[in-house]
Design brief:
GO molecular function, one term: NAD+ kinase activity
Helix content: 10-25%
CATH topology of the largest domain: Tumour Suppressor Smad4
CATH superfamily of the largest domain: Probable inorganic polyphosphate/atp-NAD kinase, domain 2
Organism: Streptomyces griseofuscus
Order of helices and strands: EHHHEEHEHEEEEEEEHEEEEEEE
Number of helices: 6
Distance between the termini: 31 Å
CATH architecture of the largest domain: Sandwich
Strand content: 25-35%
Number of domains: 2
GO biological process, one term: NAD+ metabolic process
Structural class: alpha+beta
Protein name: Inorganic polyphosphate/ATP-NAD kinase
Oligomer: single chain
Length: 296
Amino acid sequence: MSLAPRAVLVHRTTEYEELVARYGTHGQAAFVLASRGRDIEEIAARHQGTRRALAQVAAAVPLTWRQARVERADLERFLFAPEDVVVVVGQDGLVANVAKYLTGQPVIGIDTDPGRNPGVLVRHRPRDAAKLLAAPGGGCEELTMVAAEADDTQRLVALNEIYLGAAGHQTARYRLGLDGDRGAVEAQASSGVLVGTGTGATGWLRSLWQERGGRLPLPSPTEPHLLWYVREAWPSPATGTSLVSGRLDASAALTLTVESDHLIAFGDGIETDALHLTWGQRVRVGVWGERLRLVG
């Protein structure tokens, strides 16, 4: 007997909840903000909007389904099941946060604050939840993801981009190579390397793309291609700057061999979830085999 679907509602602690947790009470938080020329009521209103959206989405889950909630900080400890339908209630970044824990489950993005969120990944309103849950597998876009795999079996997956470099964004030293480039490698000293997807082309990757004049075509979110850029490569007698940008297709990869005491790789801006790499280690970055199934 197959299990009934489970709706997993993913959310994050609101700014208001963080303020009250820090200062103890609403009144004390309001006093501190007022001393800085800010009004807590705007933040409290957004908090109430998020709570209403969560309640509306929860009420839209079919009665025959199971239901669970998970806060962003607990995602790494939550076990997703094949029959889950993931409903992200919040901002675009929350979809990226959950993507690396999934293996094909459909994701519905619910925007709790239209006008403040770009709505690239949270494309729907709370009132649409019942209709979307009635046919969660229909109309899904399959978004390309990026993965970094180290030679000691460490692996990191991201939806937008992966950054490789020194903690604190200091100078990183490494050797950079490309698959299929007749073994060519270059020793580099830089502020790190960024490898991004078409989804990431709306964020950090786009800023680098614009800085470099937009010469490489940006991939769409569903294309199996990645763009990569070296940040602030430094020329010296021992380091070069000839390999500073490029495009990777699904079968290619960028290889980085560490020549610093400690480098890290993190995805989607979450530095607390990182690969830790030491001198001589090799990490390979390319298109990940799994895709995020986002309900359009």
